[in-house]
Amino acid sequence: MKNLLLSKGFFPESLLRPTVNYILQNQLSNGCIPWFANGKADPWDHIEAAMGLTIGGELAAARNAYQWLAQEQLDDGSWWANYLGDEAVDKNHRETNFIAYIATGIWHYYLVTQDAKFLRDFFPAVKKAIGFVLRYQAPTGEIYWAVGEDNSAKKDALVTASSSIYKSVECAILIAQTLGEESAHWYKAWQHLGNTLRRHPECFDRTWEPKTRFSMDWFYPILTGVVHSKIAHQRIESKWSTFVEPNIGCRCVSDEPWVTVAESCELTLALLAAGEHAKAVNLFSWLHQFMDDDGGYWTGYNFRDQVIWPREKTTWTAGAILLAADALTGHTGAARLFLEPALENIDLALNLKIEH
User: Fold this and answer.
1) CA 196/CA 218 separation, integer angstroms
2) Contact 143, 157 (CB under 8 A)
3) Full-prediction pTM beyond 0.90?
4) What per-residue confidence (pLDDT) applies to 344?
5) Is the peptide bond before 221 cis (omega within 30 degrees of 0)?
6) Nearest CA among 255, 137, 158 for reference residue 210
7) Is the per-residue pLDDT at 113 higher than 50?
8) 47 and 104 in contact (C-beta within 8 Å)?
9) How many Cα atoms within 13 Å fall on the side-chain side of residue 172?
10) pLDDT at residue 352 in the model
11) C-alpha to C-alpha distance for 249 and 263, rounded to whole angstroms
12) Residue 307: strand pairing partners
């Protein structure tokens, strides 16, 4: 097994250059980054891959990726769930966390480059996207997970998706503050969402089975800054043995023998945010056995059957690898994006746990 123990100041540039190239090779000329050659693209995973390009120093390609998003943005600020080339292929719903994620990607690019013109150029797209998403905030604070073609809300919410939106709205506020733009209404919505995630588990999973068997439900509130410090540490300990398979990675769901590389990378970031540095280093070191010769990483591995599954190497998995490597080594100015809350005077309600 190939292990890679990373430390601050030692980004493995030569090892991960093929991973950056893997994303580049799959990016279309219009800027879109599909999952893999001839595959679909979705806004969230497209942005994850674009952040990988930014970390890899491929700034023109990353800008091209964000320009594609801006060009495809609908008048109301949203994007469809999936695209194939230049065409939307799934118009029956739009996922709110997909739409909000542009703020995270744009802020990430700025943290790496300090390019204020880029921030200003893309602020209109961020403003429209966040405006769309916050129109679907329930009176109780959670964000409805999706919107139909007719603009009707699908009225239930996911802990993982709302946590992702929490981070994206934080990034949008930081963009607005940097540009001197008004963001008080975003801040109020962000506080309301955070309070609901921390105090009101009854607002999530109301119309379907609880998603507690999914590892993302466990670690996303830590990854996105909803909880941190002592509560984050306790949350990690509570389900570590449930979701983490030693020397392999993080399970997608607790009751299946399947780990995914991207979720293992996101858990690496969450561990760093929780102050669990040794766990983060070890977990990330296990993942390089899933790197293929072309620099791509296999999406997942069934450890019961000892087979790669599915037989695909996704660009967003490559992006997640680069994000985790950056966070572990402090390689770019965005290395701490997911490791600490960045807004001042935040009431994080540290004495309040997410109950489920």
Assistant:
1) 16
2) yes
3) yes
4) 58
5) no
6) 158
7) yes
8) yes
9) 31
10) 40
11) 9
12) 302
